[in-house]
C-alpha cells in the first residue's frame, strides 16, 4: 500500500507540475525554465513524458490494442461505418482514418520535443549538481531513441526489404526548425547510438532494479516504470532484430534473460498478467497509468457503442495452431460476457476486470501498460538458434513461453525436436495481441495478410506496410 500511495503521489505531482512543460508553445521557446532549476524539476519533466506516452493517442490505445492491432487483423469495429473498418482494409487515406494515423506522428514528435527540452536544459547544468544526473540523461536518451524507432517502424519501409529506403527526421534539438529525412540506415545508426549511450550511463551509474524493496525511494523506486537498463537492452534486442542483425539481437536479449529480475508467470496466472496492470515477473518496462483501464473499458470491454472493437471471427484459429495441451491464453484472454454492459465475445487480455466491474482493484500491482515483456526476448533467441540449425536449443527457448501458457512444448524429450520459424511466429501472434507488435512482425517478414471478414488476402507492399507521413510535415520543405 505504501508503494502505491507513493507512486500515486509522485505521478499526481508530475501531472500537475508538468502542465506547463507539456504545453509546447507555437513560438518554440523553452518552456518553464524554473522547472529545471532543481533535480525534482527534471524528474517531474521525465514523469511528464511517461504520462504523455500513456495517453490514448499513443500507448493508451493506438499503439497497443488500437490502431496498430487493427491493421494487425486482431480486431474490427462493431459498426459497419466505424473508421477502423476502413483501416483493416488498409484504406489509409480515408477521410476518417488519415487523421488517426497523423495523430501518431504528431504526438510522437511532440513527445520527442519534450525529451529534447529536458536534455538541453540538463546539458546546461554541471553533472555534479545532481546525484542522478546520468540517470536523467540516460532515460531521456532512451525515450528519444524509442520514440524515433516506433515512428521508423510504421512510417518507413523495412530496412531488410529495402536497405536504401528513406527513414525519418531524427530530431535532437528542441526547435521547430525543419529536420531532414535521413536514409533509413542513418535513422538506425542514431537510434542505436542513443540507446547505447543510455545503456552506458545506466550501467556506469549502477542500475537498481528490485521489485520488492520497500526501502528504495525517490526516482530510483519502481524502476520497471522507467527506461531502466534492462529496458534499454531489451529494446536494443528489438532494434537489432528489426535491422536483421539477429546475433546482436540475441546477445542483448540474453543480457535481460540472464538478469535475476525476470521470469515467466505461471500458466494459472495468465488471466492477471497484464489486465490493466504491469506484470510482476515478465515486464521489463511499463508505463504507469491509472487511466488505462478506462480506455480499455470503452474499446475492448463495453459493447454496442461506436468505440467498441470486436475480436475477428478467426480468433480461435490463431490459438488452435500448434495446439498440444491447453492454451490458457485462449481461455482467459477471450471470453463471452453478459454483464455490466459487456455483451458477447470480448478480448479481456488488457482489461482490468476489477475496475470495469467494481471501479477498484486490490492494491497488489502497479496499474499501467506493459511496453516490453520477457516472451519477446525468448522468441528472438529461439529464432537465432533456429537459423544456426540448432533446433533443440531453439525449442528450449520457445518452450519457455509456450509451456508457461499451458502447452506441452516442442521438445518432447524423445530426441525428435522439430521447430520452425512458423512455429515461433505462430506463438508470437498468440502472445502479443493487444501489444501492437504483430503488424510489425508481418512487415518484418514481408508476409501477406489475411482479412477474415471480407475473406481477402493482401499482398505485401508499401501501400500496406508504410503509413503515410502527414502532409503538414512537407509544408515548409523545399
Automatic annotation (TrEMBL):
SusD-like N-terminal domain mapped to chain residues: 20-207
InterPro entries cross-referenced by the UniProt entry: SusD-like_N, TPR-like_helical_dom_sf, TPR_rpt
Segments traversing the membrane: none
Gene3D superfamilies: 1.25.40.390
Superkingdom of origin: Bacteria
Pfam family, one: TPR_8
Protein name: RagB/SusD family nutrient uptake outer membrane protein
Amino acid at each position: 500500500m505504501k508503494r502505491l500511495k507513493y507512486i500515486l503521489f509522485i505521478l499526481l505531482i508530475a501531472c500537475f507540475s508538468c502542465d506547463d512543460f507539456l504545453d509546447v508553445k507555437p513560438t518554440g521557446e523553452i518552456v518553464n525554465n524554473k522547472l529545471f532549476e532543481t533535480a525534482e524539476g527534471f524528474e517531474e519533466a521525465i514523469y511528464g513524458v511517461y504520462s504523455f506516452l500513456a495517453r490514448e493517442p499513443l500507448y493508451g490505445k493506438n499503439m497497443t490494442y488500437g490502431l496498430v492491432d487493427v491493421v494487425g487483423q486482431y480486431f474490427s469495429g462493431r459498426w459497419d461505418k466505424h473508421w477502423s473498418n476502413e483501416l483493416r482494409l488498409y484504406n489509409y487515406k480515408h477521410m476518417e482514418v488519415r487523421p488517426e494515423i497523423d495523430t501518431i506522428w504528431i504526438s510522437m514528435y511532440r513527445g520527442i520535443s519534450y525529451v529534447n527540452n529536458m536534455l538541453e536544459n540538463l546539458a546546461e547544468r554541471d553533472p555534479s549538481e545532481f546525484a542522478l544526473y546520468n540517470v536523467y540523461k540516460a532515460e531521456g536518451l532512451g525515450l528519444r531513441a524509442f520514440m524515433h524507432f516506433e515512428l521508423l517502424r510504421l512510417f518507413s519501409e523495412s530496412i531488410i526489404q529495402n536497405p536504401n529506403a528513406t527513414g525519418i527526421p531524427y530530431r535532437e534539438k528542441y526547435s521547430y526548425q525543419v529536420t531532414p529525412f535521413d536514409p533509413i540506415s542513418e535513422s538506425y545508426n542514431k537510434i542505436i547510438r542513443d540507446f547505447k549511450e543510455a545503456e552506458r550511463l545506466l550501467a556506469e551509474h549502477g542500475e537498481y532494479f528490485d521489485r520488492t524493496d520497500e526501502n528504495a525511494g525517490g526516482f530510483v523506486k519502481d524502476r520497471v516504470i522507467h527506461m531502466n537498463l534492462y529496458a534499454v537492452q531489451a529494446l536494443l534486442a528489438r532494434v537489432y532484430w528489426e535491422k536483421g542483425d539477429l546475433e546482436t539481437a540475441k546477445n542483448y536479449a540474453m543480457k535481460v534473460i540472464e538478469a535475476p529480475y525476470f521470469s515467466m508467470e505461471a500458466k494459472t496466472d495468465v488471466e492477471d498478467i497484464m489486465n490493466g496492470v504491469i506484470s510482476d515477473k515478465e515486464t521489463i518496462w511499463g508505463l504507469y497509468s491509472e487511466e488505462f483501464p478506462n480506455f480499455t473499458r470503452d474499446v475492448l470491454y463495453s459493447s454496442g457503442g461506436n468505440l467498441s472493437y470486436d475480436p475477428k471471427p478467426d480468433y480461435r484459429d490463431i490459438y488452435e495452431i500448434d495446439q498440444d495441451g491447453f492454451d490458457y491464453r485462449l481461455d482467459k484472454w477471450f471470453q463471452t460476457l453478459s454483464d455490466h454492459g459487456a455483451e458477447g465475445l470480448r478480448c479481456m487480455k488488457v482489461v482490468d476486470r476489477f475496475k470495469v466491474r467494481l471501479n477498484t482493484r486490490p492494491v497488489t500491482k502497479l496499474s499501467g501498460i506493459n511496453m516490453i515483456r520477457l516472451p519477446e526476448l525468448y522468441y528472438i533467441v529461439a529464432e537465432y538458434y533456429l537459423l544456426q540449425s540448432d533446433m533443440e536449443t531453439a525449442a528450449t527457448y520457445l518452450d519457455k513461453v509456450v509451456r508457461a501458457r499451458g502447452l506441452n512444448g516442442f521438445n518432447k524429450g524423445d530426441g525428435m525436436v522439430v521447430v520452425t520459424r512458423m512455429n515461433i511466429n505462430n506463438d508470437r501472434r498468440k502472445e502479443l495481441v493487444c501489444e501492437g507488435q504483430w503488424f510489425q512482425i508481418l512487415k518484418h517478414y514481408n508476409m501477406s495478410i489475411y482479412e477474415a471478414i471480407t475473406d481477402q488476402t493482401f499482398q505485401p507492399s508499401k501501400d500496406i506496410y508504410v503509413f503515410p507521413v502527414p502532409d503538414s510535415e512537407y509544408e515548409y520543405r523545399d
